[in-house]
Design brief:
about 260 residues; mainly beta; Nuclear Transport Factor 2, Chain: A; 8-stranded antiparallel β-sheet; about 40% strand; globular
């Protein structure tokens, strides 16, 4: 899971009270009369977000995260029908872009990235939606930057059910001192000799450290996923190893089954 949130730039000054968030959420939804209730607070890599709930005019239950600057960082509708595919990917793509451009002052950076898109789920499942995702990469190093947009369009209703966006300024160098092969060798060296692991994926990314901890300190990191062949029971051992791309230090070995 990209990790992330949706960033809406708005021109009001929040006072910290739930009622003061009405202009932000109303601007996002296009609805002027909303009863907004705060449900909690969550810590993210780039600061705290407050969580809110509201009923939309059509009866949909909607949830929003709002950051310390009064910016809506994520949105989703609850309990939406999505079993039958009734719209095409072309319509979903247009819906997603119309939704985004209506809410963001500048999406020019998206033009530099090839979006990935897919229909999730299988016939008869309850999670049929088009997932459209854009990730920005550094043109020289190929590093994945903390600038991402993801929109999920309901394949049955054709409306946006969920969206998230991250658009953080990069504060570190995106050119690694440690090359990919060296990082791979380091990653393999911290694993046991048996079972034999093979590299499944290597990504260079700007993320926050310590890994998975919400403090907002950026670093350029090699993210190396390794897996072993399934054993007789079908168990697959593997791990994601995070290597500092400037120092070569192992930041985290995250094992998985």
């Amino acid at each position: 899971m990209i990790v992330g949130g949706i960033y809406i730039w708005l021109t009001y000054k929040p006072s910290g009270r739930a009622v003061d968030l009405a202009p932000a959420i109303s601007s996002f939804t296009g609805e002027t009369e909303l009863i907004i209730k705060q449900t909690g607070v969550d810590q993210t890599s780039y600061g705290a977000v407050k969580q809110y709930y509201a009923n939309l005019a059509n009866g949909d239950q909607a949830y929003f995260n709002v950051d310390e600057n009064g910016t809506v960082t994520s949105f989703f509708r609850a309990n939406q029908p999505n079993g039958e595919v009734r719209i095409s990917i072309e319509r979903a793509r247009k819906t997603a872009m119309d939704f985004a451009t209506a809410r963001y002052p500048d999406l020019s950076w998206l033009d530099t990235v090839q979006p990935s898109e897919n229909l999730t789920g299988t016939d008869g499942s309850s999670n049929r939606f088009y997932s459209l995702r854009w990730i920005r990469q550094d043109p020289k190093s190929g590093a994945i930057l903390p600038q991402m947009l993801k929109i999920e369009v309901n394949a049955q209703t054709g409306q946006v059910d969920r969206c998230s966006m991250l658009n953080e300024p990069v504060t570190v160098s995106t050119m690694p001192t440690i090359d990919q092969q060296t990082a791979i060798q380091t990653a393999l060296s911290v694993l046991p000799e048996t079972p034999a692991f093979e590299v499944a994926e290597v990504l260079l990314t700007v993320t926050t450290i310590p890994i998975y901890e919400p403090n907002g300190q950026q670093a350029l990191v090699w993210r190396i996923t390794v897996t072993a062949k399934p054993d007789k029971t079908g168990y697959v051992a593997g791990a994601v190893i995070f290597i500092d791309a400037q120092t070569g230090n192992v930041l985290l070995v995250d094992s998985f089954a």
